[in-house]
């Protein structure tokens, strides 16, 4: 009994410590992707919950298996009952069906689908997601991610699944450098799955000049996380931001960190007008075109901001496109097109987040 109480108390204390490390505090780091030189950092070694940034390791394992020839892009990935029980975000596949390895990869980099991640993990782990998680952890340690432990393939909450911003930057560098033939998947704007158009959730692809991947992550416990790689003048950086309190904060902090990184590398600055519009559906009495805006430094210098749709959400099973407000009027935003925003729009702020959706 005394031993059990000691173990229970120790576990609870560990969890409280972990919570104290991420609550209300950002962790960030920017590295040169080629050399590994750290260009900026803020609390990069706090152990935190990765949320869907976990899927970067799932993808690393998939790319490794593709190169080794143990799986192929057109290979069928069985969908188990366990995979279909994953919480959203998900494709909504049903037990007994299949998707291909390439479809699973695309589902992870765009929609951050937890059911696809689990199914892919079970394939790579010999039918067992816990076995795959152990393989992920072993691979992470081999890459030098000494503070990382994985417990599942998706990043859904587990108190023992921990990492750091520094470890994730190491992983991002390896994804870029180890698999140049597969890195292009991270810049996928959308893909079709069973007649549906699945868009990419990553706002940096549209909002930051030179950004061409990687991944967002969110759970209530982790906060808003983001890993980004961007290239300018043949200089590639990888950046990590963890624990942001909102998507706009997460995106703006990342953009600022990358700007400073490129400046440190001697890359000429690029004007960064940045206003993000995010569509949310929070109830029948709320407008679908709610707007979140980020006025960047260039906007403060008098440059006209630009509105960019972060990602459409779904309502009653249908995708709803973001409708940014321009000059007081709702304007449909198609694909990656952007529209100038008037000065009046930069003073409007409205944030409505679905805390149940984990991406």
UniProtKB/TrEMBL annotation:
Stored Pfam families: Peptidase_S11
Binding of substrate, residues: 215
Annotated Gene3D superfamilies: DD-peptidase/beta-lactamase superfamily
Ranges annotated as biased composition (Basic residues): 349-359
Keywords: Carboxypeptidase, Cell shape, Cell wall biogenesis/degradation, Hydrolase, Peptidoglycan synthesis, Protease, Signal
GO MF annotations, alphabetized: serine-type D-Ala-D-Ala carboxypeptidase activity
Domain Peptidase S11 D-alanyl-D-alanine carboxypeptidase A N-terminal: 26-245
Similarity comment: family membership: Belongs to the peptidase S11 family.
Database matches in PANTHER family: D-ALANYL-D-ALANINE CARBOXYPEPTIDASE (PTHR21581), TRAFFICKING PROTEIN PARTICLE COMPLEX SUBUNIT 12 (PTHR21581:SF6)
Protein name, as recorded: D-alanyl-D-alanine serine-type carboxypeptidase
Organism: Acetobacter orientalis
């Amino acid at each position: 009994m005394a031993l059990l109480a000691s173990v229970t108390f120790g576990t609870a204390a560990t969890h409280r410590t972990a919570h104290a490390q991420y609550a209300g505090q950002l962790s960030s780091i920017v590295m040169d992707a080629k050399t590994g030189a750290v260009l900026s950092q803020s609390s990069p070694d706090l152990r935190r919950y990765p949320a869907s940034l976990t899927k970067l390791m799932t993808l690393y394992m998939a790319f490794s298996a593709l190169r080794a020839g143990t799986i192929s892009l057109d290979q069928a990935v069985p969908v188990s009952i366990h995979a279909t029980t994953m919480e959203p975000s998900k494709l909504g596949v049903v037990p007994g069906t299949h998707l291909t390895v390439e479809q699973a990869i695309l589902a992870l980099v765009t929609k951050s689908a937890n059911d696809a991640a689990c199914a892919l993990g079970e394939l790579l782990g010999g039918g067992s997601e816990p076995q795959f998680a152990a393989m992920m952890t072993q691979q992470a340690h081999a890459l030098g991610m000494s503070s990382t432990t994985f417990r599942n393939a998706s990043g859904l909450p587990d108190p023992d699944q921990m990492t750091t911003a520094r470890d994730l930057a190491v992983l991002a560098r390896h994804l870029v450098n180890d698999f140049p033939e597969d890195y292009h998947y991270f810049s996928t704007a959308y893909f079709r799955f069973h007649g549906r158009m699945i868009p990419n959730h990553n706002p940096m692809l549209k909002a930051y000049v030179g950004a061409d991947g990687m991944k967002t992550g969110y759970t209530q416990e982790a906060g808003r996380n983001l890993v980004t790689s961007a290239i300018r003048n043949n200089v590639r950086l990888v950046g990590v931001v963890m624990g942001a309190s909102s998507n706009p904060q997460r995106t703006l902090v990342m953009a600022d960190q990358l700007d400073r990184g490129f400046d440190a590398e001697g890359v000429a600055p690029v004007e960064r007008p940045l206003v993000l519009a995010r569509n949310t559906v929070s109830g029948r009495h709320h407008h679908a075109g709610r707007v979140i805006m980020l006025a960047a430094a260039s906007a403060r210098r008098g440059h006209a901001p630009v509105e960019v749709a972060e990602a459409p959400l779904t309502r009653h099973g249908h995708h709803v496109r973001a409708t940014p407000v321009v000059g007081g009027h709702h304007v449909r935003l198609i694909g990656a097109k952007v529209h100038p925003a008037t000065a009046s729009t930069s003073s409007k702020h409205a944030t409505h987040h679905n805390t149940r959706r984990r991406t």
